[in-house]
Structure formats: C-alpha cells, structure tokens
Amino acid sequence: MRPPDAVILDLLLPDARGTDVCRELRRWSTVPIIVLSAVGDEKEKVAALDAGADDYLTKPFGIDELLARLRAALRRVAQPSEPIVEIGGLRVDLEKRAAFVDGLPVQLTPHEYGMLALFARNPGKLLTHRTILQEVWGPGYGEESHYLHVYVSQLRRKIETDPTRPRYLITEPGAGYRLVEQS
Predict the structure, then answer these.
(1) Within a 13 Å sphere around the CA of 22, how many CA atoms are in the beta-carbon half?
(2) Could you give the residue range(s) of every CATH 3.40.50.2300 domain in the chain?
(3) Which CATH number is associated with domain 84-179?
(4) 3-class SS at 102?
(5) Distance of alpha carbon 30 from alpha carbon 77, whole angstroms
(6) What's the pTM?
(7) Which CATH superfamily hosts domain 7-77?
(8) Which CA distances in Å does 100 have to 89, 91, 94, 158?
(9) In 13-144, where does DSSP find H-type helix?
(10) 3-state DSSP call for residue 177?
(11) How confident is the model over 162-179, as pLDDT tens digits?
C-alpha cells in the first residue's frame, strides 16, 4: 500500500480532535495536510497550523479553491530535494524533515524543526531574532524575543550535549543566533 500524496483533514471528527490527528501525522510524515473546518476563528487556524497543517480552509468553500490549494501543496512537495547539512555530530536532512545527533533521531516540534532548518540553510550566518521569528512563525512575530529564547532553549536541550555550554547553536548577545560547531 502506498502512502497518501496529501491529507485533507476536517477538524471536527467523531472520535478525536483534528489538531491532535495533525500533530500525530507530523510525528512520522511530511505529507501535505490541508485542514477543513466550519470554525473560522483565528485561534483555531493558528492551532491547526502550529500542529503541522500546511493550509487551512474554512467552510463553506468552493471545490475549485480546494483543488487549487491541493495542487499548490503538491507542487511544494515536488520541489527539488534539499540537502543534508552536517555540522559535527548534528545532521539535518532538510528533504526528510529529520534531525539526528550522533546518529540518533531527534524528535522536534514543528517550530523547533522550523528553527533548526532555518539555521541549517544558513550555517555560520548570524540570524537576528526578528529574522528567525518572521521566518519560522510568520509576519507579526518580529519583536517577541522572549518567546524565541524559550524555543531556542528547548531546541538546545534536544541537540546539545550540554545545553548550558552549546557547541552548535551559539548566542550572539543582543543580535541573534548562529549554527556553527565550536570545540
């Protein structure tokens, strides 16, 4: 049996919450997920997208719009494969959305992975707080550096041998972070 090319998921399910299903799918798959819901509330949309959905469509909608969004999601998946970035014992497979430390897989939340992928695409480059927030969380998150510090701390606990003395994810005080290997 072949895995699906995409998932269309309703948030209102009889036995589970759609966001929980989405989160569980993201634990083992990078398949595009389009969430459908009668709830157009911004909080619901944000929760679904944070759980790993690629798109959100509010009911009622036209079938042409759903098909266009599905085609767009499939185009993004069909883009050329991305590289594997290795820095010391840290390995980030951008195509498979996977991270490994010393050969062991690391379980990351969607935002943690988003940050790590951004760093992996820019090894050695200083990324400002504003850049990270806008690239990973989107427009409107440019000034919440305290929010970012919490996520960086969580990411360090997962990729660093000693998170209090990081060797991969280095802080540049007052500026941002960079991904490098320090001895």
Answers:
(1) 29
(2) 7-77
(3) 1.10.10.10
(4) coil
(5) 9
(6) 0.56
(7) Response regulator (3.40.50.2300)
(8) 8, 5, 11, 10
(9) 18-28, 42-50, 63-77, 110-121, 129-136
(10) strand
(11) 999 999 999 998 889 999
Per the CB < 8 A criterion, the answer to whether 144 and 64 are in contact is no
Q: What residues does CATH 1.10.10.10 cover in the chain? A: 84-179
Determine the Cα–Cα distance for residues 175 and 183; give it in Å rounded to an integer: 22
Q: Which amino acid is at 36?
A: L
- Six-digit token pair at 35? 């969430």
Strand partners, 87: 90
Q: What is the pLDDT of residues 46-89, one digit of tens each?
A: 889 999 999 999 999 999 999 999 998 888 876 555 688 999 99
User: pLDDT tens digits, residue range 84-115?
Assistant: 899 999 999 988 889 999 999 999 999 999 99
Which pLDDT score, from 0 to 100, does residue 14 have? 87
Residues in the chain: 183
